Amino acid sequence: MAELTDLTDLTVIADSPAAAVPAAPDFSGWTCPAPLRDHPRIVTGHGGGGALSAELVEHVFAPAFGGPLLASLADSAVVTLGGARLAFSTDSFVVRPLFFPGGGIGDLAVNGTVNDLAMSGAKAAYLSVGFILEEGVETSVVARVAQALGDAARAAGVEIATGDTKVVEAGHGDGIYLNTAGIGLVPAGVDLRPQRAAPGDVVIVSGDMGVHGVAVMSVREGLEFDVEIRSDCAALGGLVEAMLAVTPDLHVLRDPTRGGLGAALNEIAAAARVGVEIAERDVPVPPQVANACAILGLDPLYVANEGKLVAFVPREHADAVLAAMRAHPLGAGAAVIGECVTAHPGMVVARTGLGGTRVLDMPIGEQLPRIC
């Protein structure tokens, strides 16, 4: 709020027992530094996966495109074609810097799209890739990104089937941008959608939160820590297969990328009109990430991840699914963090370590832009 810079808002009654009684404050001229939500132009926060992104989709894209498939707003669309159920997804990657501890834009592009398909239960099969190159970028850098992209595709068991290349003038890009799209088969009996979250569901995360975002930021800002923080970038298809082998009746899977765990939980709560309650102490956050977030003034629950997932699992299957996750290398740190409830539909509430509660709102924009 604006500071009080003079005494004009105080009324002094000299003969009164209370010699300086403040008048009722006039709020009409006060301003607040909270970001405005009515933007005539695009701002960075519109790409952050938070409330601004949701408003852009709701008020600009959805009315223009229409259609029930888009309305579900899942990580990938599930379509039926020739009798087969296919998951279809696309994503763009503008990470800065291009390379960071634990990965780079090439493997990030593959794993991000494979994971979007996996969140529908699909086994990814084919990818497309589009390179948008800035004039002047070194060919050796392009080759390094392409090699990493190809290696990641082979590791994930997918084939790069088609692609495109465009070049923009110097100063009109940031070296390399990538777009990938993917398709995969959805097994029979699998129906993973945010709308399926139900009271009684157990909320499970597959491991440490906030690692990718802090890894990228540490390089971008030149921060050094006692232990190097490496991105968790990984393809989650194998982990999802292990979970579905326990039961195909998982309700929701989501990879908490932009906006982190907080945004993902809010999206699911809003889509299913259920409440979500988590125990903050039960959310696995490695000490180095917690320390980095404290230094940077960030909340690790809103920092992006690129190799983790959050699952809403019917209570009767939760123990078996958790055991299967922990038996997989990418789920060794899996933990139960909360549950779905009937109270406060559409809202996410966290029990703090001090015994209180706080509301985990949908973030407005993004704490760390350009990290995916």
UniProtKB/TrEMBL annotation:
Occurrences of domain PurM-like C-terminal (ranges): 199-342
Domain PurM-like N-terminal: 75-186
Domain of life assignment: Bacteria
GO biological process, one term: protein maturation
Assigned protein family: Belongs to the HypE family.
Entries under PANTHER family matching the protein: CARBAMOYL DEHYDRATASE HYPE, HYDROGENASE ISOENZYMES FORMATION PROTEIN HYPE
Protein name, per record: Hydrogenase expression/formation protein HypE
Species annotation: Embleya hyalina
Organism ancestry: Bacteria, Bacillati, Actinomycetota, Actinomycetes, Kitasatosporales
The encoding gene: hypE
